[in-house]
Amino acid sequence: KQEVTQIPAALSVPEGENLVLNCSFTDSAIYNLQWFRQDPGKGLTSLLLIQSSQREQTSGRLNASLDKSSGRSTLYIAASQPGDSATYLCAVASDSWGKLQFGAGTQVVVTP
Amino acid sequence: GAVVSQHPSRVICKSGTSVKIECRSLDFQATTMFWYRQFPKQSLMLMATSNEGSKATYEQGVEKDKFLINHASLTLSTLTVTSAHPEDSSFYICSARDVSAEAFFGQGTRLTVV
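Predict the joint structure of the above. Result:
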């Protein structure tokens, strides 16, 4: 059974610092991996989708890498801003149907 | 990206009553939708897979008679919590996948059973 782990569970940084969020998974036979952002009491916003054949994806200040063989993905957020404060979740799909296995998330606080 | 709309965003109901939550894909068709449940400070747990025109597939431990799922069209899935009890209070959230296999989520529904 696929297990997804996110480290650290919580992170606090001053504004301007780069953020590094880690996600690991036990079964390397994945279909894709997706990073989400969740604000308190809200739904999930998709940040980046990495297909199993890809090594990384970039969108603005966000960059996500994927190393299937080692079962790891890293989300980098450059020049953090207070508005980046949220919980970040990674999720793995094992097939094309879209069923996701989530990590527990990393709660990020960016202080002004 | 694609838009998934979930309604209501918040509902309070009395014990023993039923509550229906709607999940719509607004700009794409979704033959499959997913329903998740999230407890405070925890991650999302998949409850069931909703299949258009056929029965839902429930995850182990999820009571199919309590959580009724209907997926009558390519853009709408509903989750009905029947005979709700306080322990059913939670955050329920749906998702749908577009053709690129990217998952999009609704805004979530905060259910409080009193």
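Chain B has a mean pLDDT of 93.
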